[in-house]
Amino acid sequence: MSRGRLAQWGAIAHNPGMSEASSAGDNALPLSVTELSSALKRTIEDRFSYVRVRGEISNYRGPHSSGHVYFCLKDQGARIDAVIWKMTFSRMRVRPEEGLEVIATGRITTFPGKSAYQIIVEAMEPAGVGALMALLEARRAKLAGEGLFAAGRKQSLPYLPRTIGVVTSPTGAVIRDILHRLADRLPVHVIVWPARVQGETSAVEVAAAIRGFNALAPGGFIERPDVLIVARGGGSLEDLWSFNEEVVVRAAAESAIPLISAVGHETDWTLLDHVADVRAPTPTAAAELSVPVRAELLASLAGLGGRLAGAARRTGEHKRAQLRASLRALASGEEILAGPRQRLDRAATALANKASAGLRERAIVLGRLSAGLGRHTPAAQVAGARARLNGMGRSLARAAETDRLRRRERLARLSGRLQAAADVTARQRAQYPQRVDLASSRLRRAIAAGVAQKRTRLDAAMQLAGALSYRSVLERGFALVRDSRGEPVRRAASLAAGQAIRVQFADDEISAEVGDASAPAPEKTRAGRTRRGGGPAQGSLF
């Protein structure tokens, strides 16, 4: 709009008579709708740039998707549209609620798109203490309906916390009272999270402090507290309103760390007191609830130590009496060893008889084999004798090893029983080692004699086997002929001319070839070996 048209509009607005004259003569320049709406907007904003309006909130549906808030303020005779911009809404301490009577502070403006006027709200407060109490009661009922105040979800405080987190103002007297009381009762590590406890941003800061303590990892660089204390001094309902905000109550309900509420004096109650795990009447009382008295702990520990020592002493006396009764019920060492000693003697006698019978049986078999030696070839007899001799040697070795192991096991068992009897019978302790040594020496002598006797018989058997071996026959000038497969040749008829054979003498073995019986006798070579025809020198028996 130009300055001339604006001046003209202003003159018409202040001089209605001029307007009538102009309209009668149709000489006035018409205004556009936009020009008129803009002029009205500036006039209203200049006139009502700061107003405080009291009314009841109506048609509130929560923040818009853009973050702005739209609702109405009404009384018995009128209503006015209201708007709270997104940035202003985020800083407000009191939030709009349907049916809440408030005092809104802001400025009046128009909305040309609807030819309507509205108030841009910049601050809001409940209309008196009665409204605050009504809002508090409605909020308490809402949160209680969600189960946030249920006793079943409250946590128990740890008996001996190592670290305590405190959410309060670092400059007030509250933190000093808490630290002083903790130092008197039981000094612990205290972490203070600074937060405003009054004002528009106090509720957000307290909720952020509670969530910040819970976000600390156990065993991290900053130790996670075992108990949280949210504390503030006394004040009016308006002063303590931050602790009635939903953001604080929900943060306390979500806390995995046990939380103590110490807001105001004993007669002051907030919603934080309902949701907290423990409510303390004062900050000093919160410090007393969080830790026990060190002197009482020491006294209790001393009493428990005395009871433990007495119980241990009585238990030891009872066990000692049981041990004495068990010692009286045990048999003496001589009675324990009597049975095993008899079994050992019988086993030794039976072993000697069985060994003698076995050797006699083997001697008879060996005599029979010797008598039938002439009816068998030396190789077969020697092979059979060697197999039987090996079996006898292995059996004898196994028998000797088995006997030695059995005697050792019995000796070990006897030694273990003797040791146990010696531990139990203290009066005969000096006699047991002598008896054990005597029994051990007798056992060792018996084992040594048995082994020596068996070794002598084994040597005799080995000598007999050597005498019967075919090698002694070779020493007397005989020779052993084998074919290419190593089998002994028993008949000359089983050989063919030109067949390769091996002849074993007492000192060496040579290769030979079977010659033709009708061929002339071979000539002797220089080396003494026979040569047949022009071929290489080789021996022949045929």
Characterization of the model:
The chain has a 5-stranded mixed β-barrel with strand order 1-2-3-5-4. Strands 7-6-8-9-10 form a 5-stranded parallel sheet, sandwiched between helices. A 3-stranded antiparallel sheet has the order 11-12-13, with no helix packed on it. It has 4 domains: 32-127, Nucleic acid-binding proteins (OB fold (Dihydrolipoamide Acetyltransferase, E2P)), CATH 2.40.50.140; 154-292, Rossmann fold (3-Layer(aba) Sandwich), CATH 3.40.50.261; 333-472, no CATH class; 479-531, no CATH class. The chain contains 15 helices and 15 strands. Helices cover 51% and strands 15% of the residues. Helix 6 (173-185) links the parallel strand 6 and strand 7 (189-194). The chain starts with a helix and ends in an 11-residue tail after the last strand.
Residue ranges: pLDDT <50 for 5 or more in a row?
16-25, 524-542
Which strand order do you get reading across the main beta sheet? 1-2-3-5-4
User: What is the number of E strands?
Assistant: 15
**Rough shape?**
elongated
Report the radius of gyration as a whole number of Å. 60 Å
Main beta sheet strand tally, sense and closure? 5 strands, mixed, barrel
SS-based class? alpha/beta
Number of helices: 15
Mean pLDDT: 81
Strand content: 15-25%
What descriptive keywords fit this protein?
single chain, 542 residues, alpha/beta, OB fold (Dihydrolipoamide Acetyltransferase, E2P), Rossmann fold, 4 domains, 5-stranded mixed β-barrel, 5-stranded parallel sheet, 15 helices, elongated, disordered C terminus
Question: How do the helices and strands line up, and which of them pair or pack?
Answer:
Layout: H1 3-14, H2 16-25, H3 33-47, E1 51-58, E2 69-74, E3 79-84, H4 86-91, E4 101-111, E5 116-126, H5 129-145, E6 163-168, H6 173-185, E7 189-194, H7 202-215, E8 227-232, H8 246-254, E9 259-263, H9 271-275, E10 278-279, H10 283-290, H11 294-329, H12 333-371, H13 378-424, H14 432-468, H15 470-475, E11 480-482, E12 500-504, E13 509-513, E14 523-524, E15 530-531
Parallel strand pairs: 3-5, 6-7, 6-8, 8-9, 9-10
Antiparallel strand pairs: 1-2, 1-4, 2-3, 4-5, 11-12, 12-13, 14-15
Helix pairs in contact: 1-2, 6-10, 7-8, 12-13, 12-14, 13-14
